[in-house]
Design a protein that fits this description.
Layout: H1 3-15, H2 19-31, H3 33-36, H4 39-64, H5 66-89, H6 95-98, H7 103-111, H8 115-123, H9 130-161, H10 168-190
Helix pairs in contact: 1-9, 2-9, 2-10, 4-5, 4-7, 4-8, 4-9, 5-10
Length: 192
């Protein structure tokens, strides 16, 4: 794959609303950009580790045991629904204490993010040695940081732009609904 199509495909996929982006935007809205930036390290680590696991271990296993893939999708759906319930119940009063979104939550959510499957088996080049792969993974990591920062900034912008007009609870509820819709999409794909 050439660099320009890789960048276009990666940015398009990363910019699509999903569980990690929902958490990043929620954090930006709740605690602002600066306090949310450390979450980008969790996102990068989660994606890269997921891609590594998918390529090295899961890909061959799913190819030989299709039921294993169904089980993985089921776990992802359950996790997204549990996450949605937690975000729905979130209280704006607690935001100032530690923030609604933790490093570990972003890491686990990204590790289970279905987008990693697309990166692992479609967007990232399949051929090449370790050095070749490292360059492509570094390019992907940079894009993850840029797009993730945009989601955080969008959340913070909505917070300040709508302050007084819409309560933070509405933002949590919208985020929770987005997570449930994503869980439904993953579930529909898993059981068809």
């Amino acid at each position: 794959m050439d660099l320009l199509p890789f960048i276009i495909a990666s940015v398009s996929l990363l910019a699509t609303p999903g569980p990690t982006n929902t958490l990043l935007a929620t954090s930006g809205a709740a605690v602002g950009v600066q306090r949310s930036l450390p979450l980008l390290a969790a996102e990068v680590t989660g994606y890269l580790l997921s891609i590594l696991i998918l390529r090295a271990l899961i890909g061959p296993l799913v190819a030989s045991v299709p039921a294993f893939g169904l089980g993985l999708r089921t776990i992802v759906v359950i996790y997204l629904v549990v996450l949605a319930v937690d975000v729905w119940k979130r209280s704006p009063a607690r935001d100032g204490e530690s923030g609604p979104v933790t490093f570990s939550r972003v890491f686990v959510t990204t590790l289970l993010n279905p987008k990693a499957i697309i990166f692992a088996f479609t967007i990232l080049p399949q051929e090449g040695d370790a050095n070749f792969a490292a360059v492509w993974h570094a390019a992907l990591a940079l894009q993850i940081v840029v797009v993730g920062a945009c989601w955080i900034t969008a959340g913070a912008t909505l917070r300040y732009g709508l302050q007084g007009l819409v309560s933070a609870t509405v933002g949590y509820r919208v985020s929770a609904v987005a997570l449930v819709i994503l869980a439904g999409g993953v579930g529909a794909h898993a059981f068809r």
